[in-house]
Design goal:
The chain is mostly helical. The protein has 12 helices and no strands. The chain has helices spanning about 1-10, 25-35, 50-70, 75-90, 90-105, 110-120, 125-140, 145-155, 160-175, 180-190, 195-205, 210-229. Helix 8 runs antiparallel to helix 9 (about 160-175), helix 9 (about 160-175) runs antiparallel to helix 10 and helix 11 (about 195-205) packs antiparallel against helix 12 (about 210-229). The longest helix has 20 residues, at about 50-70.
Length: about 230
Amino acid sequence: METEKITQEVEEKPRKQPKFFTKVQAFLLIFLSFAVTSGAGYALGHFYFWNDIDMKRVNEQLAYYQEEVRKDPANLENRIILGYTHYLKGQNEEAIKQFDYVIDQDKNYYDAYYNMGLVFLDEERYNEALLMFDKTVNIAPKDFKGHVQMGITYRNLGMFEEAMEALEVANQLNPANSDIIYQIGLVAEDQGEIKIAMDIFKDALQYDPLFEEAATALERVTEKDTEGE
């Protein structure tokens, strides 16, 4: 299985000492964020809470694509959607099986690596997730989503300098994306740069005032800043 090969390939990267934000760097990131005033936000940082109606649709989608894959096992796109639907239901093992199959058939199938990375990230298998997202940025270096997910993974590994580098690339590829700005704010917060994190979360909310995670993060860091005074 491809996942067994992946596990064998994963090597621990030496962790650099955290590189703390400078004001110049923060202003540069905010400037890049404002460089484009309109940008479609891809749901990278948002979390969705399924209600009964939504889950009914997910279950219907699962049944539909299970039948489609049964009828046409060679259709890789259907397998990707089936795997992602399993992921939405929390059935990660089943999701991995579908993505594995696709990768076995096509070693350069971007969506298979990307979605496999999401599963590994969900399971906190960060080194394996990093390997998957590294594949995505090699296959499609101008697709910002892979760079964002690499940044998220690096942050979870405590590799803040690498996280910033990945998120800077994503921000240049897709400026004014509230999800990317939010992730940059999380890196700042994890490094203890509370005031800078506050400014960045405010920036994210300017682009998406309904971004609940950014609003929660802003409230959290504002409380930390008040306690530190």
